Amino acid sequence: MKKTTFITFLALIIFSLSTATLAAPVFAVSDGDRLDRLEQELLRLKKENERLKDRLGQIETLTNQHEAAEASQDHHNSTKQNELLERIEIVESEAEESRYNLLAGLVNISGYADIEYGITDSKSESNGFRLHHLSLFFKKDIQEKWKLFSEIEFEDAPLVDTDRSSNTVKEAHGKILAEQLYVEYQPMLDLDLRFGRFITPAGYWNIFHYNPYVPTQVKPMMIKTVFPKSSDGIQLRKSFSIAGSLLNTHLYVVNGRGNNGFGDKNQNRAVGARINYSPDILDRIDIGVSFYGEKDNDKVRRNSYSVHLRGEYDNLALLTEYATRDNNPGAGLTDYSDTSWFAEAQYDIGKWTLAGRYDWYDKNDSKTDAVHKRYTGALNYHFAHNVIGKVEYHKNKFDDPTDEDYYQFISSIVIAIGDL
Amino acid sequence: MLKRLYIVAILVTFSLASFTVSYAAEPVAVIVHNDNAATNINNNMLKKMYVNNILKWPGGAPVILYDLSVESAARSLFSRRILGKTPSKVAQEWAHKKITNQAINPPHTVKSQRLVIRRVSKNKGAIGYVSLKNAEGNPNVRILATLK
Questions:
Q1: Closest CA relative to residue A270, chosen from A330, A230, A237
Q2: Do A77 and A191 sit in the same domain of this protein?
Q3: What value does the mean pLDDT take over residues B107-131?
Q4: Strand partners, A150
Q5: Quick one: A36 and A144 in the same domain?
Q6: Neighbours of A362 (CB within 10 A)
Q7: Is residue A6 part of a domain?
Q8: What spatial distance separates the first Cα and last Cα of chain A, rounded to whole Å?
Q9: A207 at the B interface (CB within 8 A)?
Q10: Residues of A in contact with B41 (CB under 8 A)
């Protein structure tokens, strides 16, 4: 027997035997058994399906819980974040205030400065730049109800230069002065007492005269003439709030004019009073009267009186003041009065302010030609609330033919300094 | 001729600057301390307080005023609606009163609205204003009026 024939034969036997072995159970199981098996398999599959459904449900529930937890966490985080931001904002603001308070703990410095360029045809004045004011205010809160205030003014860039060897003054110009220097006691909002040098509470412009907040650099002629600009002594202010209107009163006793803070050169104290009423009409009305009486160092009895009226409506402000002073030299000399009044209109248009003023001053009513008139027009531009540019024109006319009329044109930049 | 040129130059310089006016969009709430007995306040009364014509509450407590900074939109709305002026103009007036020491009860200016709320919540006589959304639902202060 060939080897190939033998292998073929052996393969056929193995194949036949294996076929018979595999086919035997199939042919041996009945149809009922097969159905039972299929039913069991179906049942198993159903159970598996239910188990998977349950699992899926559990997963969904867990997912929802997780999402809810995440959302809650987000909300919580967001709330915490807002709270933190709020705290940061408050702390930052308080820190900023603390910085000011820290400085204020030392001393609060503010003030103003102005630089002008003037053109005039007056023979007594010249054209050019003028470093007019550097005025510094120092305020120190000593206690809750006590404070110290001073205003030191440097006018026209002052200089005092001395020769070291001889101790003599080589060069001096400009002016340095303590315009205000007082201690204030304010036990309550509507009452305060001041001791020292203060702006004389008379009229309106004399008090509210600071260059960043008035339309012109040139002041009305009654300032420093009929009433003194500042006074040394004691002042009481009491305010009364009456049905929404304010009555502001000042009473003061001072050394009087010509006395320089070193004491009174005479035994007569000057006395003064001011009443200002702000009734509840229009946008704002101020109406007031002032008095100042003294017997000065030359023993001249001088009594000054004034009335002022200021009204605001919308963008328009009107101010007028009338002031007169009776001068009684005595000893057979002629009594006389000096009198002044002005009317001023001011209109705001956005950052612009337009102003006009008529100013009249009779320096001696016993003479017929002592009147000085001034016509003023001004335009201001507020670059910011503390930076103002001004241009103003003044035409001065004199009744006295020996005084020549002249004009002034002034442009200026005025800066308010510090946290006012 | 030179003088005329100078005058023209000055006027032109000033004219180059533009008018800028900003207006607030959000309503503003006037807030007081929770223990404040006042139940409402009208614009006229508010103005009197903020110009110092009224210095005390009806119960006698001194009024403590709070302002926001000049740049604040809420202050812009408050100033225009209540005081009839721009915040800048009002700031100038207070500055002038402070310089001359004629400011009887000037407002405390605070930059942060939350700080205004905080300060008002701590002072019985305090009154201030913040945007309505910041005041609404805040348990520490009471809204006395709203401005739109």
A1: A230
A2: no
A3: 92
A4: A138, A181
A5: no
A6: 21
A7: no
A8: 130
A9: yes
A10: none
Does residue A224 come out as left (phi exceeding 0), alpha (psi in the -120 to 50 range) or beta?
A: left
Strands A168-188 and B126-131: unpaired
DSSP reduced 3-state for B98: helix
| A210 three-state secondary structure | coil
Domain coverage including residue B37: 24-147
One domain, residues A32 and A172: no
**For chain A, percent of residues with pLDDT exceeding 70:** 88
> Residue B78 domain-assigned?
yes
The whole-chain average pLDDT of chain A stands at: 86
In a domain, A231, yes or no: yes
- Per-residue pLDDT of A315-341, as tens digits, reads 899 999 999 999 998 878 899 999 999
Is the Cβ of A348 closer than 8 Å to some Cβ of chain B? yes
The values of phi and psi at residue A103, to 5°, are -65, -40
Strands A245-254 and A270-278: antiparallel
pLDDT in tens, A15-59: 655 544 444 444 444 666 777 887 888 888 888 888 888 888 887
Minimal CA separation from B8 to chain A, in Å: 11
Residue B127 domain-assigned? yes
Say if the Cβ atoms of A119 and B6 lie within 8 Å: yes
Residues of chain A with C-beta less than 8 angstroms from the C-beta of B48: 244, 280
Dump the DSSP string for A350-366.
TTEEEEEEEEEEES-TT
Instruction: Tell me the CATH number at A130.
Output: 2.40.160.10
The Cα of A62 is separated from the nearest Cα of chain B by a number of Å equal to 36
Closest alpha carbon to A305 in A332, A353, A258, A273: A273
CB atoms within 10 A of CB A8: 11
CA dist A253 and A234 (Å) reads: 6
CA distance B130 to B134: 7
H helical segments located in A314-361 = none
> ipTM of the predicted structure?
0.70
User: Does residue A19 form part of some domain?
Assistant: no
CA of B66 vs chain A CAs: smallest distance (Å) = 14
Q: What is the pLDDT of residue A96?
A: 63
The amino acid occupying position A252 is Y
Q: What's the pLDDT at B21?
A: 43
Contacts with B, A 82-101, CB within 8 Å? 86, 89-90, 92-94, 96-97
CATH number, residue B66: 3.40.190.10
pLDDT at A420 over 70: no
What confidence category does residue B11 fall into, taking pLDDT thresholds of 50, 70 and 90? Answer: low
Interface test with B, best of A82, A90, A93 (most B CBs within 10 A): A93
Mean pLDDT, residues B102-111: 89
Beta-bridged to residue A184, according to DSSP, are A147, A194
Q: Indicate the DSSP class of residue B60.
A: S
The mean per-residue pLDDT over the stretch A368-395 comes to 95
H helix or E strand, kind and range, residue A308: strand A301-313
